[in-house]
Amino acid sequence: MQTLTEDEEQSTATNLRAQQVILWSTPVVALVLLALFVAFPGFFPPMSPNMTATEVAQFYADNTPLIRFSMVGFNLCGVMIVPFFVLIMGQMLRMRGQSHIFAFSYLTAIVAGVTLFALSNIFFAVAAFRPDRGAELVQVLNDLAWIIFIAPIGMLVAQFVLLALAVYFDEQPQPVFPKWVSPYSLLTALAMAPSAGAAVFRDGPLAWDGFVSFWLRNGALALFVAVMFFLVRSALRRQIQQEGIAS
């Protein structure tokens, strides 16, 4: 077991407590985001790309309060999920036998992803800001919101691939994350990658309201967060034991 000075032990204990606070705040944040997701009337069922401009404008006119509420909520709370992914990055930095460039690139992918998510919220909100504007303008804003929300999948795919590589090259006798996380992360990337087609297709499973682009994409991401919550919790417990810090 690693021997630490009193100051080092206090600093490490404070750091680990902070990580545990972030970890246990994650289910609360997830529940808030789920409530906001359910509150947006355009997700259940997801709006069709084939709706006419008149139908889209009528949707925003009929649901203005709920759209505004959900999008303001997403803008306030969406970024709160980022610290959880930073916890994963922190565990990646503890891995041995692999370059820390994986972890720092992972952070870059997280920042890019949350930025695009925020942009999609803004376009939904702008469409609802003046629901009485021309129907075609509302349709354009709606298209922008949906395509930015669903189609730019590269940063998420990169995030999963980088984690998979880091886990694969972790050479410790007791790795930070189990080795099966590597293929699981790659499988999640494969499940989400086809949603890039939402920028092209207006019908079928790859359209933004389709099974692959909407339900599989979002479901795979939600499942990944749930699985990683328990894995990060276990990794933090082992870190406390390895570093000789009282929990």
Mean pLDDT: 90
Strand content: under 5%
Main sheet attributes: strand count, strand direction, barrel closure: none
In total, the number of strands is 0
* Total discrete domains: 1
- The succession of helices and strands, N to C, reads HHHHHHHHH
Q: Given the C-alpha coordinates, what overall shape results? A: elongated
Share of helix among residues?
Answer: over 70%
Number of helices: 9
Low-confidence stretches: none
Q: Helix/strand-derived class?
A: mainly alpha
Oligomer kind? single chain
Radius of gyration, in angstroms, nearest whole number: 21 Å
Distance between the amino and carboxyl termini:
15 Å
Quick overview of this protein structure:
This protein has 247 residues and is an all-alpha fold.
How would you describe this structure to a colleague?
There is one protein chain. The chain is an all-alpha fold and 247 residues long. It has one domain (6-242). Helix content is 70%, strand content 0%. The protein has helices spanning 6-39, 53-62, 64-77, 82-92, 101-129, 135-150, 154-168, 181-192, 211-242. Helix 1 runs antiparallel to helix 9, helix 3 packs antiparallel against helix 5 and helix 4 crosses helix 9 (211-242). The longest helix has 34 residues, at 6-39. The model has no long low-confidence stretch (mean pLDDT 90).
